[in-house]
Design a protein that fits this description.
Layout: E1 10-13, H1 16-26, E2 31-34, E3 37-42, E4 45-51, E5 61-66, H2 69-81, E6 86-87, E7 95-97, E8 100-103, E9 106-112, E10 118-122
Parallel strand pairs: 1-4, 5-10
Antiparallel strand pairs: 2-3, 3-4, 6-9, 7-8, 8-9, 9-10
């Protein structure tokens, strides 16, 4: 059954070099080149960034990272310090404190990679 295997999120990008700069220099991941693109380790999982002409066509959150509540503000400030801009949008049950969403379970921010893939950092998975 598929439920016994670990998923590997895959993010399409137009320019692998620009994506590598963002994921490694801005977000702090270490990657390794594989046949299909670049594989990054995140916590106990991995994700793949690969070139595709369909890059940036997903208009929903492509990948989310969960941080402990005590680390959230520091991580958000680190992203701001590196020039990452956060998105806001209308969503039922969400209140906004500037560009940080607050909801019953926690807090979250959403941002784009260079190709428009939407990423999220939150204290609780929505």
């Amino acid at each position: 059954m598929l439920s016994t295997y670990s998923p590997v999120p895959t993010l399409a990008v137009k320019d692998l070099a620009a994506a590598r700069s963002f994921y490694e220099e801005t977000l702090g991941f270490e990657g390794r080149e594989e046949t299909g693109g670049i594989v990054y380790t995140a916590g106990s999982g991995q994700f793949l960034v690969y070139e595709s002409s369909y890059a940036g066509s997903n208009k929903a959150t492509a990948m989310a990272f969960e941080a402990p509540d005590g680390d959230f503000d520091t991580e958000v400030q680190n992203l701001r310090d590196k020039g990452v801009e956060f998105q806001t949008f209308e969503m039922e049950g969400v209140q906004w404190d500037g560009d940080v969403a607050t909801f019953d379970e926690g807090r979250a921010v959403w941002f784009n990679d260079p190709d428009g893939n939407i990423l999220s950092l939150g204290t609780a998975m929505m």
